[in-house]
Amino acid sequence: MTGPITESSWRSVRDSLARTAERFARLVEAAAPEATAIGRWTVAETAAHVATVAELYGTVLPGASPPRPFPDTAARVEATALDELGDLNALTLGQLTERAPAALAERVVEDVGRLLDAGRAAEPDQLVSWLGGARLPVAGCYAHLLNELHLHGRDIASAVGARWPIPHHDAAMAFELFLVQLLSRDTGRLLVHEPFSDRPVAVRFRSRYTTPVVLEARADRIAVLPGGHPADAQLHFQPAALMQVLFGRLSVARAACTGKMFVWGRKPWLLARFLGAVRFP
């Protein structure tokens, strides 16, 4: 159960995407391309990955045809589950051979601009086919790309000692418009893996920037429930910290020790099991 995608939230996610793409581009232009950003990826490879994500959305979103489509992209995206995402990333990075920071920065800005142009005529709640055949509203796709820019901007900034603040408002949109909307719908084979839990584990998520919601890890999926539904644990979070936790950039312990996440409730220790179920690569 999710709230409606409002005209205000639709406008906000597009405005934030435009600003963040420009900020990301300036960061990439000034960064050392061979510095290690995340895992084995250099700054240049990380920027190229973001460019491929923006271009892939050109094949998914209505009215946003990319000028340089990857072969068989739509079929590959729909067939890829989360635990197979590394193969898709390797394929697209192999096809995008550009590694010059200025050229990659320009490419990201151009492709995001193309998506924003298409968004003027798009319906934000129109469902499109996403990774693994999951169904995601158009606004959720924009929020996911916004999250990609922020997380990988953080990776690059950390590699070169630059600042990269992530606005809580932007992270809140990534949580509500992307993650909650995604889990509220048919996720196809996106989350195919071992059962999440031998019994349901429900966590109520609260922040100053979001509407309270309960996410419940069941045997075969993550269910989205109203904020007043009974929960094993309650989590108060700063949105930027939560998205970094869910995407493996920040540990729960560090987020808690720095006051960015607080947990309480009947069984607060179950938060660790829940977060293990919803972590994304």
Key features?
about 280 residues, Four Helix Bundle (Hemerythrin (Met), subunit A), Nonspecific Lipid-transfer Protein, Chain A, about 15% strand, five-stranded mixed sheet, two-stranded antiparallel sheet, 2 domains
Report on the architecture of this protein:
There is one protein chain. The protein is of the alpha+beta class. It folds into two domains: 7-183, dinb family like domain (Four Helix Bundle (Hemerythrin (Met), subunit A)), CATH 1.20.120; 201-278, Nonspecific Lipid-transfer Protein, Chain A, CATH 3.30.1050. The chain contains ten helices and nine strands. It has helices spanning 7-30, 43-60, 73-79, 85-95, 101-119, 138-160, 168-183, 239-246, 252-257, 271-278, and strands at 36-38, 41-42, 127-129, 135-137, 201-207, 210-217, 222-226, 233-237, 261-264. The strands form three sheets. A five-stranded mixed β-sheet has the order 7-6-5-8-9. The protein has a two-stranded antiparallel ribbon with strand order 1-2. A two-stranded antiparallel sheet has the order 3-4. A hairpin with a 2-residue loop joins strand 1 (36-38) and strand 2 (41-42). Helix 1 runs parallel beside helix 6. The protein is globular. The model has no long low-confidence stretch (mean pLDDT 92).
Order of the strands making up the biggest sheet:
7-6-5-8-9
Give a quick account of the main beta sheet: strands, pairing sense, barrel closure. Answer: 5 strands, mixed
From the N-terminal CA to the C-terminal CA, the straight-line distance is: 25 Å
Query: What's the CATH class label of the largest domain?
Result: Mainly Alpha
In total, the number of domains comes to 2
